Amino acid sequence: MYRDLITLPYNRDRAAEYAHKWAYGRNPRYLNFENLGGDCTNFASQCIYSGSRVMNYNSVYGWYYTSSYDRTASWTGVNYLYNFLVKRDGGVGPFAEEADMKDARSGDIVQLSFTGGENFNHSPVIVKINNPVSYGNILVAAHTDDQDYYPLTGYEWVKIRFLHILGVRQYR
Fold it and tell me: In sequence order, which residues have a C-beta less than 8 Å from that of residue 27 and are 6 or more positions away?
């Protein structure tokens, strides 16, 4: 049976609310990866999932978490999350584009590279943007170094990219 994919809106408020609720704690449904390379992208994925309510269960190219041993690299890996959200063609789940700072919104993801090159190391979640839009007026929540309402200017990065979530695909 053929089913059509439809695009639904991403619930930014729900993603930000989740970020606030768990910024300084750990949801027991998910393993804390802090001592296994960092928990930032696991936390970002949890926030995105809260705002999308759709996982992609493709074991190679998908984005899902059912347990610490049954998950995709894109759930916990900074660069893998980028590839899932931005570089894939179709399929269910949230999708994004790399955007300018001025196009970022609450519930979007910021990725920071502390070393440069193509390797990004951190995935904070945007929870608020004050006017005028500037690095200091973008506030994030993050895990590993737990933060909430933390200004981007608190980080020292070499490169930065904004992942603006455009919507969520699911089957009709």
Answer: 46
In angstroms and rounded to an integer, the radius of gyration of the C-alpha atoms of the chain is 15
124 contacts 141 by C-beta, under 8 angstroms: yes
Q: Which residues pair with 94 in a beta bridge?
A: 168
Q: Which residues of the chain have pLDDT under 70?
A: 1-2
CA distance 126 to 105: 7
The dihedral built from the CA positions of residue 68, 27, 109 and 165, taken in this order, carries a sign that is positive
116 within 8 A of 76, measured Cβ to Cβ: no
Element (H, E) at 161: strand 159-171
Reported pTM:
0.95
Mapping DSSP onto H, E and C, the string for 80-130 reads HHHHHHHHCCCCCEEEEEEECHHHCCCCCEEEEECCCCCCCCECCEEEEEC
